[in-house]
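Is this the right way to post structure tokens for a design question? Let me know if I should format differently. Anyway, here goes:
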């Protein structure tokens, strides 16, 4: 499932493609002059060229675009401020973009007000901001309205209303809504949980694929199936929103069922690459390689599970 900031980065990236033209539009005059003369698209280009290396300079150009009523400029300036942890300025720019009907800016305002990245949370304003992004057609905004509604629901009626909002958002292809539904139903209705995780997986959310795979692996709410769990772990690893735990399970399964050295080599390479991102990859690499070096890497990446890793490693080694 996408974290708030990753979602916002993707939205900013997509929105920038709508509002930015190529720099060749001003072949005979400096870009800065063009921007200062009111060409907001050039301001955006200048901001894009410096946002990774000189965020303060990027903010200056994005702000100019925002002042020129470029919704993408406001959104981009807010994104820069959020990465710099200046939440007050981030809200200022996102709010400006939201006023210009930029759904991602309204979503950004909701992110900051939710308190996920620090600062004082304001639940009411967060919901209002997410609701506005939903009204402007952003499915992830609709999902957040449902998620926050579930968190704060005080009655069964409120819970059901929030669940219905999440169902609508999931149907509208917001994978975070599908995942939220899967989590919500895990204990009370495991069959429904598996179903919604499956829907999130179909939309390309690797973490939903992982959760659905676990359901089939354990028979929680569905008939246990090693084949289906394997297929879901594989899908979670290969999905656009890759889940590295799913990759570790996929690679480990492939290694165990390999029929020749070439297949083992491919599975091993997958586990090694997974180890660079996730402790589970290192742990399973230790199991297939019987080398404690991989175990130590797993412990470095996840100190809380280190004792569990050590016990399983020793148990496997002594078989």
């Amino acid at each position: 499932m996408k974290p708030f900031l990753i979602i916002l980065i993707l939205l900013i990236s997509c929105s920038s493609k709508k509002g930015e033209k190529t720099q060749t539009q001003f072949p005979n005059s400096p870009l800065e002059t063009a921007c200062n003369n009111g060409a907001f698209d050039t301001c955006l280009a200048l901001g894009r060229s410096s946002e990774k290396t000189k965020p303060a300079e990027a903010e200056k150009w994005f702000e100019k675009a925002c002042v020129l009523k470029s919704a993408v400029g406001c959104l981009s300036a807010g994104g820069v401020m959020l990465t710099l942890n200046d939440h007050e300025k981030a809200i200022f720019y996102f709010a400006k973009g939201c006023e210009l009907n930029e759904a991602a800016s309204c979503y950004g305002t909701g992110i900051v007000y939710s308190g996920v990245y620090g600062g004082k949370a304001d639940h009411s304003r967060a919901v209002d901001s997410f609701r506005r992004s939903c009204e402007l057609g952003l499915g992830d905004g609709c999902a957040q309205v449902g998620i926050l509604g579930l968190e704060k629901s005080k009655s069964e009626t409120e819970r059901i209303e929030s669940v219905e909002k999440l169902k609508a958002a999931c149907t509208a292809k917001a994978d975070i809504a599908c995942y939220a539904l899967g989590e919500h139903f895990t204990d009370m209705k495991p069959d429904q949980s598996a179903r919604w995780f499956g829907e999130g997986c179909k939309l390309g959310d690797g973490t939903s694929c992982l959760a659905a795979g676990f359901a089939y692996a354990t028979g929680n709410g569905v008939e246990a199936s090693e084949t289906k769990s394997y297929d879901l772990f594989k899908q979670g690893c290969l999905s656009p929103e890759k889940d590295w735990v799913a990759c570790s399970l996929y690679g480990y399964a492939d290694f165990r069922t390999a029929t020749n050295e070439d297949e083992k080599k491919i599975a091993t390479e997958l586990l090694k690459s997974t180890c660079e991102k996730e402790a589970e990859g290192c742990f399973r690499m230790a199991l297939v390689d019987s080398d404690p070096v991989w175990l130590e890497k797993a412990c470095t990446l996840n100190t809380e599970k280190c004792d569990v890793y050590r016990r399983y490693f020793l148990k496997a080694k002594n078989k």
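Format looks fine. Someone answered above. Worth noting: The chain has three domains: 1-137, 155-242, 259-319. Residues 4-19 form the longest helix (16 residues).
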